[in-house]
Design brief:
mainly alpha; Arc Repressor Mutant, subunit A; three-stranded antiparallel sheet; 14 helices; elongated; Rhomboid-like_sf; DNA binding; Derlin; membrane; HTH_CenpB_DNA-bd_dom
Length: about 400
C-alpha cells in the first residue's frame, strides 16, 4: 500500500481539469448515497430549464495535454450541443451521450491506436465508438444516446480538426481568449519556460489583445487569400512537369531559373496569381515536395547545342533503320580524378574547416554498349602519356 504522502503526490500530479473530474466522480455518488443530493436534479428536463432557468452540465474525462483552455472549451461545446440534441429528441439523460462525444474525439485523433475490448478483442481506436454503441444495443436494446454522442463528437472533430486541416478551410472553432490567459501559468513560470525576463512576460500579457489582434488580422487574411485565390496545386504541377521535361534534355536548372519559370507560369494562369512571388521559401518547399536535390552536373551533355541535337534526332532514324537494335552501339567518355578527395567533410563544431590543393591526376574512360543493354564492351582506359611529343 502506498503511503499517504505518495497518494498526495499522485493526486497533485493529475492535471487540474482531470483532477476536478476525478474528485467530483467520487464526491457526487457518495453525496447521492448519503441523500445529500437529489439524483433527479442531475437529469435534464426541458420544463425546469425553460420555465425555471435551471442549468446542469455534465463533464467527462478527456485529455488535451498541455492545453487546458482548449479542453475546457471542448467540453463546453460538447455540453451545449448535447443539451440541444437532448431537448430536440427528448433525451433526459446526457451521461452516455457526453461520454461518447469525448471518446469519439479521442478515437479520431488516435485512429491507429490498438484497443482491447471484451475477451481481449483488439481493433483500431477509430472503431471503438461503434463497438461500444453495438455493445449497448445488444445489452440494453438501445443505442440512441451513444449515437447522439457520436454525432456531437463528430461535429466538434470536423469543425476543429478535419475541416481546417484536410479541407484547408477556416478555423471555425476557436478557444475564447479569456480562457487562454497564459494557460494558468504564473509569470515566473512563463519567464523560466521561454527564457525571458519577468518584465517581458508582464509586457506581453498586458499587450496580449493587441498581439492577438495583429496575428489574426495579418496572418489569417494571408492564409485565406492564399487558399481561395491561388490554386497552388495547379501551379505546382505545371512547374514540376516543366522541370522534369527540361532535365530529360539534360538542361541544367538552377533555383533562380526555376523561380523565374514559376513566376512566368503563374502569370499565364491568370489574375489569381498576382500575389505569387516564387520566394526562396516556396523554392525550398517545392524541392522537398518533389525530392529535388542540388548536385554538381557531370558530363558534357548540357553543353551540346540544342539545334544540333534536334537535327541529329531527325537524322538518326534514317541511319539506324537498316540495323538491328542489338547492333546499334553508343559510347561516351568521362574522366576519373582518382586522387581527388571529397570537397565535403564531417567536422567538429569547434574545428576550423580548412582544405588543401585539389589533385588533378586523372584518367579518361570510354564506355560503350548496345541499345538493348545486352552487350557491354570493356571500358577503354587512357592514362597520361609517358612522353609528350612536341
Amino acid at each position: 500500500m502506498p503511503g499517504s504522502d505518495d497518494l498526495g503526490q499522485w493526486y497533485k500530479s493529475i492535471p487540474p481539469i482531470t483532477r476536478a473530474w476525478f474528485t467530483d466522480s467520487i464526491i457526487v455518488p457518495v453525496a447521492i448515497a448519503l441523500k445529500l443530493v437529489d439524483p433527479f436534479q442531475l437529469i435534464l428536463y426541458a420544463d425546469p430549464i425553460i420555465k425555471q432557468f435551471q442549468f446542469v452540465s455534465f463533464f467527462e474525462l478527456g485529455t488535451f495535454k498541455g492545453k487546458p483552455a482548449d479542453y475546457i472549451f471542448c467540453l463546453i461545446f460538447l455540453w451545449i450541443c448535447n443539451i440541444i440534441v437532448g431537448l430536440i429528441i427528448s433525451m433526459p439523460g446526457l451521461m452516455d451521450s457526453m461520454v461518447m462525444s469525448v471518446v469519439y474525439i479521442w478515437c479520431q485523433l488516435n485512429k491507429e491506436t490498438v484497443m482491447s475490448f471484451l475477451f481481449e478483442t483488439q481493433f483500431k481506436a477509430m472503431y471503438m465508438p461503434w463497438v461500444i454503441m453495438l455493445f449497448y444495443w445488444i445489452v440494453e436494446g438501445s443505442f440512441r444516446e451513444n449515437l447522439c454522442g457520436i454525432i456531437v463528437g463528430h461535429l466538434y472533430f470536423f469543425l476543429a480538426f478535419k475541416y481546417p486541416q484536410e479541407f484547408r478551410g477556416a478555423q471555425l472553432l476557436r478557444t475564447p481568449r479569456f480562457l487562454n490567459g497564459g494557460n494558468g501559468l504564473s509569470q515566473r513560470t512563463l519567464a523560466e519556460r521561454y527564457n525571458i525576463s519577468l518584465g517581458s512576460v508582464s509586457n506581453i500579457l498586458k499587450r496580449k489583445e493587441e498581439y492577438l489582434h495583429d496575428y489574426e488580422t495579418n496572418q489569417n487574411q494571408n492564409v485565406k487569400r492564399k487558399f481561395k485565390s491561388f490554386d497552388s496545386v495547379k501551379l505546382d504541377q505545371q512547374v514540376y512537369e516543366w522541370f522534369v521535361h527540361q532535365r530529360s534534355k539534360n538542361i541544367p536548372i538552377s533555383g533562380t531559373i526555376l523561380q523565374e519559370k514559376a513566376r512566368e507560369i503563374a502569370k499565364l494562369l491568370g489574375d489569381n496569381f498576382d500575389e505569387f512571388k516564387a520566394s526562396n521559401g516556396w523554392l525550398e518547399k517545392f524541392r522537398k515536395r518533389h525530392n529535388i536535390s542540388h548536385r554538381v552536373i557531370s558530363g558534357e551533355s548540357s553543353s551540346v547545342d540544342v539545334t544540333s541535337v534536334n537535327d541529329w534526332i531527325q537524322r538518326l532514324p534514317n541511319i539506324t533503320e537498316h540495323y538491328e537494335a542489338k547492333n546499334i552501339f553508343n559510347c561516351d567518355k568521362t574522366g576519373l580524378f582518382y586522387k581527388l578527395l571529397p570537397d565535403k567533410s564531417l567536422t567538429l563544431d569547434r574545428e576550423s574547416c580548412k582544405g588543401r590543393k585539389k589533385s588533378k591526376d586523372r584518367i579518361s574512360i570510354l564506355f560503350c554498349c548496345n541499345s538493348t543493354g545486352e552487350e557491354k564492351l570493356k571500358p577503354l582506359v587512357i592514362g597520361i602519356a609517358l612522353f609528350f611529343k612536341h
